[in-house]
Structures are given as structure tokens and as C-alpha cells.
């Protein structure tokens, strides 16, 4: 049952806004750890690392470019971004550039494996919190929902987007490795278990429907 905005069970707007901004920083650190481990990154970050290498720009800066493109395409599909989507596209890229500059790049595998795993945990935590605030989904998720609105199933839309982004990222020379496989395999099952408790804590309502994610 939807929770009314005035319900005492729902966290205040200010609380959720702060949580959303914290999630921007946390996901940026997670991305930086995965990138610096050189063991593979998510499909979206394969595009960011490959594009950054080709264009000679920061990974976060490439994230701005791809995020803007995803948002514009989603908007054309009549899925306009919320303010959280726009701010996230700006601040996550900024935080990623800062975090990567501050993150060491050890050569020893015994150090890089924990970096990869911690990066995954941080990304999943940040995404779960961000979704639970219901203040704005990420650009890629927004495009996924836009495609779902046109009749495509959410799973097919997600897989299709990741496949296209993966191929383009690899062609650009993006980071590819075991971390990529782990991200693709674990993301669905992990988020299915982490988002519900975060939603319950925030007092919001987020549910999957045949047409997408409703909040």
C-alpha cells in the first residue's frame, strides 16, 4: 500500500535528500576502487573507462557525457529526469574523478581483489539507498524505464542496454575482467535483496511492474 507523504512512517524529504547525496559519494568510491583494481568494471564503466582513454579525459567526465546521452534519449521516450537524476549525473562524475585520483593502484593481486569486492559492496549499497529515496533514478535506469514504457520488458531493456554499452566500451578499450562478470551476475540478485529493506527504512514505496519501476 502506498505511503502518504505526510505519514510519520516516511522519512523526511531532507533526510532522503542527504541520503541521496551520500549515495553519490559512496557509488563514486566504489567505482574508483573497481577501476583502480584493474580487474574489471561494470558495463557502464567499461564505456566510461574506454571513452576516457580515447578522449584523454577523466573517467567521471566521460560518465557525464554518457549520462547526458542516456538522459536525453530517455527524455525523448517521455521519461523526463527528476532533479535527483540531474544532480546525480553531475556529482557522481565529479566524485569519481576525485576518488580515482586519491585511490592507489597496487600491483599485488592480494590487494586488488579486496578492492574489487569492496567496490562492488559500496556500489550495491549506494544504488539501494539511492533507489529507496525515490528522488531520482540514474540515467541508465531512466533509459531502461523509458524502453519499458514502450512495451519492452524491463529485463530485456536492461540486458539490451548493457550489451550495447559493453560492446561500445570494449571497442573503445575499456576495462574488462572478472569484475565485469561478477557485476553482471550478481547485480540483479543482490539488489533484489538489498533494495526492499532500504525502502522499508525510508518509508517509501518502490515496486516492480511489467512496465518498469514505480515509486
Describe the structure in your own words.
It contains 8 helices and 2 strands; from the N terminus they run ααααααααββ. The protein has 215 residues and is mainly α. It has one domain (13-214). α3 (59-76) packs antiparallel against α4. The protein is globular, with a radius of gyration of 17 Å. The model is unreliable at 1-7 and 207-215 (pLDDT under 50).
For the secondary structure, the number of strands is 2
List the secondary-structure elements in sequence, H or E.
Answer: HHHHHHHHEE
Q: Which whole number gives the mean pLDDT? A: 85
**Radius of gyration from the alpha-carbon trace, in angstroms:** 17 Å
> Percent of residues in helical segments?
over 70%
User: Total number of helical segments?
Assistant: 8
List the domain count as a whole number.
Answer: 1
Outline the biggest β-sheet. Answer: 2 strands, antiparallel
User: What is the SS-derived class?
Assistant: mainly alpha
Instruction: Give the overall form.
Output: globular
**Could you tell me how far the N terminus lies from the C terminus, measured between alpha carbons in angstroms?**
12 Å
Strand content: under 5%
Poorly predicted sequence stretches spanning 5 or more consecutive residues: 1-7, 207-215
What's the arrangement of strands in the largest beta sheet? 1-2
Structure summary:
The protein is an all-alpha fold. The protein contains 8 helices and 2 strands; from the N terminus they run ααααααααββ.
List the keywords.
about 220 residues, mainly alpha, two-stranded antiparallel ribbon, 2 strands, about 70% helix, disordered N terminus, disordered C terminus
Amino acid at each position: 500500500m502506498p505511503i502518504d507523504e505526510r505519514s510519520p512512517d516516511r522519512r523526511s524529504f531532507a533526510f532522503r535528500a542527504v541520503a541521496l547525496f551520500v549515495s553519490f559519494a559512496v557509488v563514486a568510491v566504489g567505482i574508483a576502487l573497481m577501476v583502480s583494481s584493474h580487474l574489471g568494471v561494470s558495463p557502464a564503466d567499461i564505456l566510461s573507462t574506454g571513452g576516457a582513454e580515447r578522449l584523454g579525459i577523466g573517467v567521471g567526465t566521460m560518465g557525464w557525457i554518457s549520462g547526458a546521452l542516456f538522459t536525453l534519449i530517455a527524455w525523448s521516450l517521455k521519461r523526463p529526469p527528476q532533479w535527483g537524476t540531474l544532480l546525480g549525473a553531475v556529482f557522481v562524475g565529479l566524485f569519481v574523478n576525485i576518488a580515482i585520483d586519491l585511490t592507489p593502484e597496487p600491483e599485488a593481486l592480494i590487494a586488488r581483489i579486496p578492492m574489487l569486492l569492496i567496490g562492488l559492496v559500496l556500489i550495491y549499497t549506494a544504488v539501494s539507498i539511492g533507489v529507496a529515496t525515490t528522488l531520482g533514478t540514474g540515467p541508465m535506469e531512466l533509459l531502461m524505464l523509458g524502453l519499458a514504457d514502450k512495451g519492452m520488458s524491463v529485463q530485456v531493456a536492461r540486458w539490451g542496454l548493457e550489451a550495447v554499452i559493453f560492446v561500445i566500451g570494449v571497442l573503445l578499450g575499456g576495462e574488462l575482467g572478472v569484475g565485469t562478470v561478477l557485476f553482471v551476475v550478481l547485480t540483479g540478485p543482490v539488489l533484489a535483496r538489498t533494495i526492499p529493506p532500504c525502502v522499508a527504512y525510508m518509508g517509501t514505496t518502490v515496486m516492480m511492474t511489467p512496465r518498469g519501476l514505480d515509486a
